[in-house]
Specification:
This protein is of the alpha+beta class. Helix content is about 50%, strand content about 5%. The chain has helices spanning about 10-20, 40-45, 65-75, 85-105, 110-120, 125-145, 160-175, 185-195, 195-200, and strands spanning about 1-5, 25-30, 55, 60-65. The model has no long low-confidence stretch (mean pLDDT about 95).
């Protein structure tokens, strides 16, 4: 399998965590978003939205969207599971992951920022305020959604919720979003930091890191 990703993409970061947790070996091919490589016709044939990550299977078929890729990996190698076995906890973990991937992340991703700059002449300080606003509001909601750390977001083992949360926390720190009011999130972050899978997936640990 081949994973097309970008070291600082939080969506790709999620998939790298899942790959590491599953102990899978996947070839990585970086797609530099700031250089516009995602708009190359060859890559766009794989990812019509011109986004990362994209997973190309050994038979040539492709899967886009991080949560769909993670779901495939979980089906491909069921152990360790990426959702709690309890049905309610599994639904809550999935809801938390979706809150991050669908409600927080899209508002501050590269395509939105470029549109704000191009169409509305948004300045750097305005972009910074925009990012901090939506990340702060979103993580405040996630803080209320997750269960008291035990030690992860929904139990004794990391789940899809943690896989999505850690890249978003990375973004919060990158954009100077304070996390003092998020003790549960900080506790989950500390628990994840003790696992090699999360450390291996960090943006600064990737070969294409700048």
């Amino acid at each position: 399998m081949i994973l097309y990703d970008y070291y600082r993409s939080s969506a790709a970061y999620r998939v790298r965590i899942a790959i590491a947790l599953k102990g899978l070996v996947v070839e990585r091919r970086p797609v530099h978003l700031l250089h516009g490589e995602q708009r190359d016709p060859g890559y766009r044939a794989k990812s019509p939205l011109a986004i990362v990550p994209t997973l190309q299977l050994d038979d040539g078929r492709v899967i886009t969207q991080s949560l769909a890729i993670i779901d495939y990996l979980d089906a491909l190698k069921p152990e360790p599971p990426l959702l709690p076995r309890d049905a309610v906890l599994a639904a809550q973990a999935r809801a938390t992951a979706l809150s991050i991937a669908c409600e927080i992340h899209p508002l501050a991703n590269l395509r939105v920022i470029e549109a704000l700059q191009r169409q509305f002449d948004a300045k750097d300080d305005q972009i910074a305020m925009w990012r901090r606003c939506w990340i702060t509001e979103g993580l405040s909601a996630v803080e209320a959604l997750i269960a008291p750390p035990a030690p992860f977001a929904f139990g004794a083992e990391p789940s899809l919720a943690d896989i999505c949360l850690i890249p978003q926390v990375y973004n919060a720190r990158r954009f100077d979003v304070p996390l003092d009011d998020c003790p549960r999130i900080l506790a989950v972050e500390a628990a994840c930091a003790a696992l090699p899978a999360f450390m291996e997936a960090r943006p600064e640990a990737q070969p294409d890191a700048e």
